Amino acid sequence: MKWLGLLYLFLSVSLQFGGVSSKNQGHEDSAATRTIKKELGDPPEVHCSRERSKAAWKIIQEYLMPFVEKEQYQISRTCKLHPHNDLYRDQEEHKIQVDLNEWQCGYCKKRFYDDIFLDKHFDNRHYNLLNVSHTRCLADVCGALHCDLEMDSVPHKKTKCNPAAAARNRHLCEGLADSCFPVKQGPAASRLHEFFLRQFCDAHTCTGRQKPFSQGRRKKRASISYLVISILTLALLFLFYSYIYMYSRGVKRGTQELKRVTPIGRKKKPS
Ligand SMILES: [Zn+2]
Questions:
Q1: How far is the CA of 138 from the centre of ligand 1 (A)?
Q2: Given 77, 87, 191, 204, which is the most exposed site by the fewest CB atoms within 10 A?
Q3: 20 C-alpha vs ligand 1 centroid, how far in Å?
Q4: Which whole number is the average pLDDT over 180-188?
């Protein structure tokens, strides 16, 4: 019993020490961050949604750039869709996906389980890298590009369409078409101008007749491998069934031969 008492005493003391030391560590940590913050200055208020910027970037990459590249057209820096206008572009390009559940910060090499934690890390540790002096934010074009569609993984119930908001978004959308693809610049710009109106702007109405992204999207590279896999699977299935067919035919022929044999056998029995 004395032994147990001593063990308990030892454990409780060591636990207390552990608790104190971890508390101290937390204190030191916060002190350290404070000094860093002092050195860097307080994080500037960023009035640009990272999430919406990401959604806009994805839409541009998927529903616009394949067509722009096809026309070999160069978007100018004055166009709000130019990568230069994305405040978070540099940070996004410093995301390294090591594994399915492993992300690395390209600035300081720290690793995270999820992309979301890496975003938080950028906000807390590398906010000084955001150049907020220019008024640039890709999320600003979200109204025109239907970002809500990209952000909702589950399409919510239809909310009542607001005609004023739809008109505003349409105006923003047409402005983008004019500034990014000026018709005067030539046939390629002219074609892309027309494409942009059909792809993004037509759907900004309350009639519900026009769907956004009506002109299609980037064809996924994965589709080729899917095609190969499905063809292989079909070929294997064909081989499998033809084998079964041949086998069953073989068995049938066998039983027929047996049937032919058995009546003679039966006839022989009574005699
Ligand atoms: Zn970092």
A1: 23
A2: 77
A3: 29
A4: 97
Ion ligand 1, residue ranges at CB < 5 A:
105, 107-108, 110
How far is CA 152 from each of CA 49, 103, 177, rounded to the nearest angstrom?
16, 24, 25
Identify the pLDDT of residue 83. Answer: 94
In a domain, 247, yes or no: no
Q: Which pLDDT band, with edges at 50, 70 and 90, does 43 fall under? A: low
Q: Is residue 248 part of a domain?
A: no
Residues in the chain, total:
271
What pLDDT is recorded for position 197? Answer: 97
- Provide the number of structural domains found in the chain: 1
* DSSP three-state, residue 16: helix
Model pLDDT for residues 131-168, shown as the tens digit of each residue: 776 778 999 999 999 999 888 766 655 678 899 999 99
> How much distance in Å is there from the Cα of 126 to the middle of ligand 1?
6
- Domain ranges, residue 114: 96-127
Check: CB of residue 115 under 8 Å from CB of residue 99: no
- Does residue 89 sit in helix, strand or coil? helix
Question: Does 109 map to a domain?
Answer: yes
